Amino acid sequence: MYLLHRLDINEHKAIHKEDSEIFHDIIKNNMFDKEDANGNIIRYENKLELITDRAEIKKVLDEKFSSRHRTEEYEAGLPSATVISSGLFPMNIDPRRNGSKFPLLKWFNNTSLEDMNAQKIKNKLSLDSGTLIHAVLENAMNDVDTRIYTKKRSLDKYISMACESPEIIKMIDNFEDRKFYFVEMVQATLKRFFENEIEYITPVASELFINLPNKIQGSVDLLCYYKKKLTLLDYKTSKGSKSRTQLIDSGYVRQLYIYSRMLYLGGYITKKELEQDFQGVIAFYNWNSHNSFIHEFTKEEIDKCKAYTNFIYNFYWKTMTEQEDTCFEL
User: Fold this and answer.
1) What's the angle, vertex CA 207, arms to CA 250 and CA 264, rounded to 5?
2) What is the C-alpha separation between 97 and 193, in angstroms, rounded?
3) What are the DSSP E strand ranges found in the chain?
4) Which of 27, 150, 221, 262 has its CA 20 to 30 A from that of 83?
5) Which secondary structure element, helix H or strand E, spans residue 190, and what is its range?
6) What is the tens place of the pLDDT at every residue in 155-182?
């Protein structure tokens, strides 16, 4: 793989080597230009450079994709599950192919610096909302001594616990001034989940951080029994809804594959448990419309991500270790 670099914001996206010639054709033919409603051509300069030098790619992977800037428990130089499942997932930029992410490439190049910064503000609101929702769910799942019928009615208690957490107050800017908004948002977003789903969940381990030395690291939201089946449950939050197919395309199911391997390789589940009656669930919380959705994925569906996930994982470690003759896989 190669990397595309937008210079003015110092951000990178991955593409396949096979798409490098297409990228140069896009630049040469001004394919970043677009036509407005009146038929006038709007010209956009190219703001991207293609990085093909292996040493430079290695430097970017180390500085931008190796968990160097994450929380203290993350080890610098070791990739996170999120990086492998989505951060390095390459764009197919050939506009002639179905399913191409060429519009994403145009957005990456054409969006102004001002709009990029505005988008970062929106992303921060989404991140803050997700942070608080995760904290409330963690409080609920760690409350193992409370009976189910009481837990179903304890949403306000778990929200209060999260709002009093020094970690939450530190992570969310101006939290005290924005607290009323966040509390109302979480109450509305999680209400349906607490009423309809939480009674079917028996937690085993919540917010389980796993570090596999020289392999990968990441935090599993919840290992549990959901409807009496051993389940890897991952929380996702967003302003907009996502369909089951969109969850697959976004890399969330690749993340389930990685987490399932981490649970097995870390000794948290046995090979028999992994191969028999194991499932993945994405609990998706839409904080704008206040809906929650449960999407269940079988072990067979999760394992369909194996080849592509290991392709990206192999690229990362071959680049970082410069060991071309070694095959890396989870």
Assistant:
1) 75
2) 39
3) 2-6, 11-15, 34-35, 41-42, 48-51, 201-212, 216-226, 229-238, 278-286, 291-298
4) 27
5) helix 175-196
6) 999 999 999 999 999 889 889 999 999 9
Q: What is the C-alpha to C-alpha distance for residues 59 and 266, in angstroms, rounded to an integer?
A: 29
User: What integer pLDDT is reported at residue 17 of this predicted model?
Assistant: 93
pTM for the full predicted model: 0.91
The long-range contacts involving 20-25, CB below 8 angstroms and separated by at least 24 positions, are 20/50, 20/52, 22/93, 22/94, 23/48, 23/50, 23/93, 24/50
pLDDT of residue 205: 95
- What distance in Å separates the CA atoms of residue 303 and residue 105, rounded to the nearest whole number? 29
Backbone angles phi, psi at 164, to 5 degrees: -90, -5
- Residue count of the chain, please give it: 330
Where in the chain do CATH 3.10.310 domains reside?
A: 200-321
pLDDT, mean of residues 194-215: 94
Contact in structure between 233 and 283 (CB atoms under 8 Å) = yes
Distance CA 78, CA 216 (A): 6
Quick one: pLDDT at residue 139? 95
Strand pairing category for 278-286 and 229-238: parallel
The alpha carbon of 258 is separated from its chain's Cα centroid by a whole number of angstroms, namely 12
Amino acid letter, 216? I
Residue 173: predicted pLDDT: 87
Q: Which CATH class is domain 200-321?
A: alpha beta
b/e 11-43 (16+ beta carbons within 10 angstroms → b): ebbbbeeebbebbeebeeeebbeeeeeeeeeee
Structure tokens, 63: 């500085």
CB-facing half-sphere around the CA of 55: CA atoms within 13 A: 0
Instruction: State the DSSP string of 107-132.
Output: HHHHS-HHHHHHHHHHHHHHHHHHHH
CA distance 226 to 224: 6
Number of helical H runs and strand E runs in the chain: 14, 10
pLDDT, residue 279, reads 94
